[in-house]
Amino acid sequence: MDYLEEKFKTLWRYSGCNGNYQNGFRELVAKYNGPKRYYHTLDGHIKFCVYTFFEHIMYQVKDPISVLWQLILHDVVMDFYRSDDDVKSAEYAKEFLHKYGVDAKAVDKIARAIVYHNHKQNPCNEDIAFGLDADLFIFAQSQDVFDEYESNVRKEYDWVKESAFRKRRVEILSNFLNNRPSIFLTSYFKNRYEKQARKNLRNSILKLNKK
Question: 3-135 in CATH: which number?
Answer without folding.
Answer: 1.10.3210
